[in-house]
Design brief:
By secondary structure, the chain is α/β, with parallel strands linked by helices. It is built from 13 helices and 17 strands. It binds nicotinamide-adenine-dinucleotide (NAD).
């Protein structure tokens, strides 16, 4: 008999819809072909939105409260795609009800919150994962394998970025993302969590933040006239304004546990760059470059015997050798292109697969905590602290051993 896993999504906005899409397509993975993934419930404070998303993505019902999910014993696993401030209330309740939880990034507003979620989830013995969706791209899988095999030697240094333009103009209305008490941080937390998680997966953890500078370039924004739309909330503006207390752009210099130097820039005001997560990793025997705007390819340089005029980096196209490519798109041939939707399918497959097979998930709450330690360290360094060791921050959460 097939194993049945009943899933719900809380938050039907930009990220919640991507999770619904992921669950809907997760059985494309051969390891899950004998699993019935029952698409149970979409929950959102806006019932109208929950209803439209549940219909569009084939879920059985829509509800307008978290309670209906927490109290429904038939639901095994829940994606949480809520504004960062809502995690503190919702995640402990889900864990307390014995549900497996896949939480969007960032894992709350601080390492302290993330630590609380991780310890509670471990104690309850539920599967816990973080939506570091870029890490699920086939190209990142392929690069991780190459780096582990020593294809470019030891990592000497890297430069990495997440640049996006959603807040590039004053026309983007004020929302929870611009209030530090609600979001935990601006670009460094919102998009920085993604690029830091990718770096940590590929190049190992960040040990120490050496220096950071954070700037808020648009210091106040107008409130939306009515309800803001989902995602980055483009909406009609009122004349009322609110002060922005989170960073628009942050630059960081950090040291990796392996000794390499990392330079990271995160920006939500990157005029002309809609959405680019990328990096250039320089090793002792080669280098690798990637940009998510060309998600199915990366550049690999390895020394060769070719003459200088025909030597150089080559473009590698990702193909069906990568499970995140092979089992997430309907025609997985090299060159056809996959994309960000595939990452959400791979993420749902990993989450459901780890529930069914009782194997570790790729990015658990501890990975989310590690990323939040880095985000906290960057914010401390930007506030004027000299270099910040992540091990000191970690000890402050764990207490004396
Ligand atoms: N992985 C990614 O690429 C990605 C992309 C966007 C957002 N995110 C993350 O996803 C989370 C949500 O961001 P978003 O852009 O989808 O936001 P959003 O504003 O589009 O959606 C959030 C939804 O939550 C609902 N909501 C708010 N509080 C609620 C509550 N207490 N109970 C029920 N519903 C509630 C709102 O009505 C809204 O529809 C954030 O943590 C963000 O960082 C991740």
């Amino acid at each position: 008999m097939n194993k049945k896993i009943t899933v719900a999504v809380i938050g039907a906005g930009m990220a919640g819809q991507a999770h619904a899409y992921g669950f809907r397509n997760a059985t494309m993975h051969p390891a899950l072909s004998e699993v019935d993934i029952e698409l149970s419930t979409i929950a959102d404070a806006s019932r109208q939105l929950a209803e439209s998303v549940s219909k569009r993505y084939g879920f059985a019902r829509a509800v307008d409260s978290v309670d209906a999910v927490v109290e429904d014993d038939s639901i095994d696993a829940v994606s949480v795609a809520l504004p960062n401030f809502a995690y503190a209330e919702v995640i402990p309740r889900l864990i307390g009800a014995g549900k497996h939880v896949l939480a969007e990034k960032p894992l709350g507003r601080s390492a302290a919150e993330a630590y609380g979620f991780a310890t509670a989830a471990d104690a309850a013995e539920v599967v816990h994962g973080v939506g570091f969706s870029f890490s699920r791209l086939g190209a990142i899988e392929a690069i991780e394998t190459l780096l582990k095999s020593g294809a470019i030697g030891n990592i000497r240094h890297l430069s990495a970025w997440y640049l996006t333009d959603y807040a590039a103009t004053e026309e983007t209305p004020f929302s929870w993302r611009y209030d530090k008490s609600l979001a935990g941080g601006g670009a460094i937390v919102d998009v920085g969590a993604h690029i830091i998680s990718v770096i940590e997966r590929l190049a190992g953890p960040i040990n120490r933040v050496i220096a950071a500078e954070a700037r808020t370039l648009i210091p106040s924004r107008r409130l939306p006239a009515g309800t803001a739309g989902i995602g980055h909330g483009h909406a009609e503006l009122s004349s009322e304004t609110a002060a922005v207390t989170t960073d628009d752009v942050t630059s960081v210099v950090a040291e990796l546990a392996g000794g390499g130097l990392a330079q990271i820039t995160t920006s939500r005001v990157a005029t002309g760059v809609p959405n680019s997560l990328g990096f250039q990793i320089i090793g002792s025997d080669g280098s690798i470059a990637f940009d998510s705007m060309h998600a199915d390819e990366f550049q690999l340089f390895q020394p060769s015997s070719a003459p200088a005029e025909s030597n150089g980096a080559r473009t590698v196209l990702v193909g069906p050798e990568q499970p995140a490519f092979a089992y997430t798109i309907p025609m997985p041939a090299r060159g056809v292109g996959s994309g960000y939707g595939a990452a959400f399918v791979a993420q749902a497959q990993d989450f459901v697969g780890s529930i069914v097979s009782k194997r570790p998930i790729t990015s658990d709450f501890w990975a989310g905590y590690q990323t939040m330690l880095a985000c906290d360290a960057v914010q401390l360094a930007a506030a004027g602290h000299s270099s910040v060791d992540l091990s000191d921050l970690d000890k402050s959460h764990r207490g004396p051993s």
